[in-house]
Amino acid sequence: MSQQPEDLTPREAWQRYIDRRRPESTDHSMKTYYYRLKQFVEWCERQQIERVSELDGWTFENYETHRAGEGLAPVTLNGEMKDLRLFVEYLERIEAVEDGLSDRIHIPKVSDNEASSDKKLATEDAKPLLEYYRRYDKGSRSHALLEVFWNTGARLGALRALDVRDYHSDEQYLEFVHRPESDTPLKKKVNGERPVALSDAAADALDAYLVSDDRWDKHDDHGREPLFTSRLGRPGQNTVRCWSYLATLPCLHSECPHGRKRETCEFTERNKASQCPSSRSPHQIRTGSITYQLDSGLPPEVVATRVNASVETIKKHYDKATPRQRMQRRRRRYVDRLEFDS
Fold first, then answer.
1. Which H/E stretch holds residue 166?
2. How far is CA 269 from CA 80, 272, 277, 285, in A?
3. pTM of the model as a whole
4. 231, 216 in Cβ contact below 8 A?
5. Domains of the chain (ranges plus CATH)?
């Protein structure tokens, strides 16, 4: 007799759920689902919960209390419980648990401030970095990387996915293309495909990088020619993240704001650059770029298209402008219209 769905162990149900989600999700999303739910499965096993049919509201209450007691940030706990609810909704669909069980999972609320980190590459920090690269290190990998991140507001995965053929030098734009069959999916899949215009400075940086000694002339495992290359071909996400931290060290252009000497500071090393309080990740550069684009007068709808996000998401998670900056935006767009004509 075949196994009934209600007899699945939490681990068996988790593995089936992950398999169902895989075709519709990116690798990054799958890793998130995998590890968040793995915590719950292992906790169930410690509680000697042998079948999913044993799950009830008290189970979820105890699990949330357990995870909160481990010191999770509110936004992290919020995400874990949301993913757990989706998992239980799947169990309802296959009739492994009773209908409505997912409604008993409490989703802790988080404030807008908790849901969105204020850390970003601020405009006043990006400007001296870009000025340094344009004057003293033009065409280096760090220069081209920062120019593209700052100019396009692209996600890490989108930048890593770029091929040389995706850069159109004459027309000065990059084309982001979803290619999951060769290990470069976009977060929003085909909905993430788009051309993004580049500034003169960003295009100049890429032109210089493509012919520089700082770029490895390599192909990836699928025969494609990545735009940004490592010694082994297409860089992994962690490699791009390390490059980002190194490219945003403020001691490149001025004295260390933290009282250190660049010659002896361990934060200038590849694997420790992330520990510098002033270095920034790709996501933090994206946040700063979106704020800068909005401050520069680009309509939210235009910025949303460039960075592949909804206007609502931009306003909630990425627009880190201060109240004064928002006032200046309104002044530029509207207040000048209130002046009497001379």
1. none
2. 34, 5, 14, 20
3. 0.68
4. yes
5. 5-115 (1.10.150.130), 123-327 (1.10.443.10)
